[in-house]
Amino acid sequence: MSERAGYHVSYDAAGDVVIDAADGAPELPAAEAPQDGAGCHAGGTMEDAARAAGQSELLDGFARDYPQGPHDKPQSMCPAFGSLRVGLRMKRVATILSGSACCVYGLTFVSHFYGARRSVGYVPFNSETLVTGKLFEDIREAVHEIADPDKLDAVVVTNLCVPTASGVPLRLLPPEIDGVRIVGIDVPGFGVPTHAEAKDVLAGAMLNYARKEIEAGPVAMPQGGRSDRPTVSLLGEMFPADPMMIARMLEPLGLAVGPVVPCREWRELYAALDCGAVAAIHPFYTSAVREFQAAGRPVVGSAPVGHDGTAAWLAAIGETFGLAAATVGEAQNAVLPAIRAGLAAAPVRGTITLSGYEGSELLVARLLIESGADVPYVGTACAKSPWSAEDAAWLEAKGTKVQFRASLEDDCAAMEAIRPDLAIGTTPVVQKGKELGIPALYFTNLISARPLMGVAGAGALAQVVNAAIGNKDRMNRMRAFFEGVGQGDSAGVWQGSPNLQPQFRAQNAKKLERAQKRADAERMI
Description:
Blueprint: H1 44-52, H2 56-65, H3 80-88, E1 93-98, H4 101-113, E2 121-122, H5 127-132, H6 134-146, E3 154-159, H7 161-165, E4 176-177, E5 180-186, H8 195-216, E6 231-235, H9 241-250, E7 256-261, H10 267-273, E8 277-279, H11 286-294, E9 299-300, H12 306-320, H13 325-345, E10 351-356, H14 361-370, E11 374-380, H15 389-397, E12 401-404, H16 408-418, E13 422-425, H17 427-435, E14 440-442, H18 443-447, H19 454-457, H20 462-469, H21 472-481, H22 502-524
Parallel strand pairs: 1-2, 1-3, 3-5, 6-7, 6-8, 8-9, 10-11, 10-13, 11-12, 13-14
Antiparallel strand pairs: 4-5
C-alpha cells in the first residue's frame, strides 16, 4: 500500500488468523417484549419499544446511515432478506436468524427461491424466553454448537424486528469460538428501510471485523494471491461480467480490480481493504464506505457506464491514484470509441420510466439515455448519497426527474402521468403498468441481470427493452380482451352485479382509526 494511505495489510505465511477469545458470559439485562401484534409494519410502536430496551444508539445509527426522507419508508420486501442473501452466498459462513417464526419462514422460503443451497439456522422463542433473557442464552448455545472451525470461518447471527425491539444484545456474544468468527447484526424492518441497504449492514459489520483483524497482525492471504498492481475494490453486487470489463479498462492505467464487496469468502475482505481506492458502484453502502475510509481508502462514485460515465469515471480513478493525464487519456481512447459504436449499433427508441430498489437505477437510466431513450423519471428506493451525486446531476441535466427514496405511489404516479412506451420497475409497478396497457419489465430480474459496464454494457439493454416496447399492440389486445372482468371486490365474471357491502369496510376503517388514536395517546403518556 502507498504511504499516503497509511494503512498496511500484512499477510501471514500459513494463512492463519489468531483472535483473542472473550472469556466468560456477561450478565444480561432483562429484555422487554414489544406489544402484541407488533411487527415490521408497526411503525413507531416497535421503534419506541426498541428505544425503551436500550437500542437508541443502534436506531440513531440507522437513521444516519439510511436517512428516510422525503417519505417515511419505501415499500420493499423484508430488509433482512438482503443481509441473509449476502451471508448465504459466502463460503464457509453459517447463518442464524432470531425472530418471529413467520418472519423466519418467509425469509427462508424466499432465500431458497432465489437459489440458496444451505440451511438457515433459527432460534425459536416465546414471551418468557424473550423477557427473561433466556433467548440470548439460547442464541449463545446455538452459536457454540454450530461453530466448527473445520467447516466454518464465520457465523452470522441476525436479530429481526421483535428481538431488536426487545433489546436482545447480540453485541455480547463472544467475538470468536474456536477460531470461528461470530458476527451479530440487527436488521429490523423499522430501522433499515430496504433490503438493498441491509446488504450494507452485514458487509459493513464484516469489514469492521476484518479491519480489526488486520490491525491486530498478519491475516490470511487471498486464495488467488496478492495483486502485483494497486487495486480498485468494487462496492455493490453486479453482473459477473462487469468486474471483468472494469479490469480491462483499468489495465492501461497500471491498475487491477480488487474483490467485489459483498464478498464471497472471508479472506476476500482483507484483499478488499488492501486496495488503493474503492469504487462505489452502488452508492448506498454507507457502512462499508465508513470502514474503507477508516482504513484510509479514497472512494470514487458513479461507474464506467456508457460513454460519458466511462470517461468521467476513468478520469476520477486517474486523479485518485495521481496518474498523468496522458495515461488516463490513453485508457479512455482504448475503450470510448468501442462504447460509442456499441451504443450506436443498438439504439433504443421510446419514452421509459424507470424505478427500483437495487441501487443501480441511476446507472441504468444513464445507459438508456445514451442509447437514445427518453427517460423523464427515475425513482430509487435508496437514499441520496455523495456517491450518486454525479449521476443525479448528469440525469437532471438531461431533463430527468430523479426521485430518491421513491415510494410506490411516486413511481405509479409518474408512470400514469407520463404514459411511457415502457415502464421498468418493481413488481407492483409492472402490474399497474400492464393494467393500463403499458409494456412493463421487472427491474431486478430483467434489467439488473445484464452487464452495464464498458463495452459489454453498450447495447446490452437494447434487445430486451426494444422487444418490450414492441409489445404495445399486444398489451392493448390483452387489455381489451379482459375489459369488464372487474377488479377488487368485483373481480371476475358475474352473471349479475356482485353484492358489495361498503358499510362493512367503513365500519372496519373506523375501528382501525380508533385503535390508532388509542395507541398514539398511550405513547404520549
